[in-house]
Amino acid sequence: MGERRDHPQGPGATDNPGALEVEATVVLGIRVTDWPALRAAAVAAVEELDFSGIDPAGQRSELLREVSEDPHAALGALLHPDRLVGAVPGIEAMGGTLEISTAEDFAPDFAELFPLDGEDGEAGDWTLTPRTACLLHTQLLALADAAYDDLDEHDDEPVTDDDDQDWAVFARLPQRSWGMHRSWRRAMARAFDDLAEDLGLGEWPLPRCPGEELALRMALADARALLGAQPQAVADLMGELPADLYDYDWEGCEDELLGVYDMAGQDPEEDGESRLDTLLAATHPEGWFLTYEEAEEREQGRGYRR
């Protein structure tokens, strides 16, 4: 709570001789646990707003697009100072600002999300361990960041053999996808985030479409490479997470996480990597994000991080 100042008279006075000017500072730590519910509330809030000036309808449409795609924008619409003050009787807003940022030090508690049933050294059924989940989560987010950076720098430009080194992610995809448009590339970037969100919720990141299969395969390759090149950095990342015999079992991850859902027309005896390559080659990139028949479809309006 900031300084209180009495203004019984003068330019700042109101009809109430006891009126006070109060400066309030509120710092909130927020975790978004239900993005569809947050988005719906933000859309409803924007629908209630009055827009003036040039092209009010265009202003509303643009803000609706922003809150439908970005959790930061949705929170901004719901936590705006004017909206908060309007819900409190007996006061009026005199101005204010709102700043929203992602906490840099936030990380899921993988030890709690992926508990180990046995003691260290005790063999049992394969499981996704806290350390494996942590490293895989880190690589998925890094790939999503890099994909969005590619978009910021190149937008709709096609990848070519001459400039493939200038791309962080999209040049690593099968060449038949190199000329795909911006919306498709955003869907690919979101695939990394979707799988990372699964891990953040304590769920195994089971790909629900060919694009997610490809995203997870890339993350597994990057996690393996990072562990081999920078083992100390990986150890520092793990902190106090418990160790287990199945830590960093990338072959086990491929067996248990890839190819879980039947791929139509594929040979069930073929290994997962070959089955995916065959499916990607036989399917136009536009179909890489069609949900497998047996998989649960992701929320259609979940938006994009950028």
Q: What key phrases describe this protein's structure?
A:
306 residues, mainly alpha, two-stranded antiparallel ribbon, disordered N terminus
Task: Furnish the topology, listing elements before pairings.
Layout: E1 4-6, E2 20-22, H1 35-48, H2 56-69, H3 71-78, H4 81-86, H5 110-113, H6 130-154, H7 182-200, H8 210-229, H9 231-238, H10 250-257, H11 272-282
Antiparallel strand pairs: 1-2
Helix pairs in contact: 1-2, 1-3, 2-3, 6-7, 6-8, 7-8, 8-9
State mean pLDDT (0 to 100 scale): 83
Number of strands: 2
Q: How many DSSP H or I helices?
A: 11
Structural class per helix/strand content?
Answer: mainly alpha
Which residues sit in consecutive blocks of at least 5 with pLDDT less than 50?
A: 1-13
> Quick one: overall form?
globular
The biggest beta sheet reads: 2 strands, antiparallel
